[in-house]
Amino acid sequence: MIRVLVSDSMASEGIEVFRKTPGIEVDVITKHTPEELKELVASYDGLVVRSASKITKEILDSADKLTVIGRAGAGVDNIDVEAASKKGIVVMNTPGGNTVTTGEHAIAMMLSLARKIPQATASMKAGKWEKSRFMGNEYCNKTLGIIGIGRIGSVVADRAKGLKMNVIAYDPFISQEAAEKMGITLASLDEIYGSADFISVHTPKNKETTGMINAAAFAKMKKGVFVINCARGGIVNEKDLYDALVSGQVAGAALDVFEEEPTKNIDLISLDNVICTPHLGASTDEAQTTVAVAIAEQMVDYLLKGEIRYAVNFPAVSADLMAAITPYLALAEKLGKFQAQIVSGGIEEINIEYSGEILKYDVAPITIALLKGLLTPILNENVNYINAPVIAKERGINVKESRSSAEGDYRSMITLTLKTSEGESITAGALFGRRDPRIVRINQFTVDVIPEGHLLMLYNHDKPGVIGNIGTAIGSANINIARMHWSRLQAEQKAMVVFSTDTPVDAQLLKKLKETPNVISVQELDM
Ligand SMILES: NC(=O)C1=CN([C@@H]2O[C@H](COP(=O)(O)OP(=O)(O)OC[C@H]3O[C@@H](n4cnc5c(N)ncnc54)[C@H](O)[C@@H]3O)[C@@H](O)[C@H]2O)C=CC1
Ligand SMILES: O=C(O)CCC(=O)C(=O)O
């Protein structure tokens, strides 16, 4: 039975998806300390979180069964994705499922902030009628500066335009053309700071954005600016924000997210000009149902069929793309596995050259399959599509992809060049009949080897009688030869032969083959 743990509160519709799937058992345990969670995850195959559970490396250390973590939402900064990848765990999220809801929350926060609605509500509930205390500001014709114009940022921009605001945005990863399509003017950060009356942050939290809105940024902003953060705590430095709010440089702040959650920064949230919500950006019935069902369906498909959708640590592969590239994935994995067994020395660089029809597709997953095949025979650890690139990086292996438009003998070809501490070695693979993997080149030799089962590869001097002697030795060891392919370099008087045998070759026969006259080297390969 496949076991899934839901460790944060999640809409019942999502839990139902797991419950009604035969072969899957789901537990919902939302109250736990980090130590308890660490103990819990050890016995589950899948884990669903929102933002409350912090999935650290320490927690993952005990997660030996875990193959997938699903985030019912967008941000995965509460998950140590690198540690998960290293363990071969897929991390998936549901981008888009709560976009509109969170964009609406940012707008609601902006409107409430400038019209002091929460403060006025609290005052009235305290029995007061303080009409002159809560003088507000109009939005019409004011400038809204959006930092990060992705999914949520663009919803905010769209709604703000409806409020007749002048919208400008900073996002180094969005082209002018894409911004124009959204009807938004791109600006530099300094231009935003210098001209915006409202600034709303919608970037992910990462090394570049952490602390991005700090004292230096506040100093550049227009005096009396309003700041809204419904993205992630820590993008706006809370200490610097406090100072800017107290000095009046910032007229007000609307915060949904905090450096620490639940926040202990009571000084900040107690300020009169701060309004706040406890990370409610995505909290609508609609969004929670959507993300819960989406993540449960994605996880079920992964756990039962190995289908990967919206993984943050694996390239996006649609069902159509997957169907088209599956034979290439198999070929790349075989090629990597073959090459790993014939090279010697520590691998320093891998160069993968793609040519032919394969170039129609995104080759990123094919490269990962090749790395998986290559690293599997070399390492004791369990290598999969998720951790293969991480392991290669950790081992200092430089992975290069290139594309060749040269017309070759095959519809598609993958050529793998390995640079090791002992030299360079090249193999190439192609598909036979568009489906069946073949090794078509081993260094200077042109071959046609089916990379399957037990292979025995011999280099020899190109002299009469060698193949006969080898065949006799194999036959006398009672090993049946299923296939045989040989190739020669006439000018160099060298040849190679690859046998496919029904059973593995033992050490005694290997020794005997190595001692056979004119045999240069012998290698057995397990495919
Ligand atoms: N408060 C809440 O409940 C929720 C918060 N979020 C948060 O909202 C944020 C945005 O989410 P989405 O729009 O879905 O993400 P997205 O990935 O669609 O958009 C993020 C945008 O930020 C831009 N960006 C990245 N680095 C930047 C930088 N240094 N400067 C300026 N722009 C930069 C990217 O190019 C991208 O366009 C994330 O932090 C996410 O975690 C998301 C959902 C709910
Ligand atoms: O699950 C939640 O309530 C928070 C959503 C969120 O922050 C996200 O999706 O990034």
Automatic annotation (TrEMBL):
Domain called ACT: residue spans: 455-527
Pathway given in the UniProt record: Amino-acid biosynthesis; L-serine biosynthesis; L-serine from 3-phospho-D-glycerate: step 1/3
Enzyme category, top tier: oxidoreductase
Biological processes, Gene Ontology terms: L-serine biosynthetic process
Annotated GO MF terms: NAD binding; phosphoglycerate dehydrogenase activity
Similarity comment text for this entry: Belongs to the D-isomer specific 2-hydroxyacid dehydrogenase family.
The name this protein goes by in its record: D-3-phosphoglycerate dehydrogenase
Organism: Syntrophus aciditrophicus (strain SB)
Lineage: Bacteria, Pseudomonadati, Thermodesulfobacteriota, Syntrophia, Syntrophales
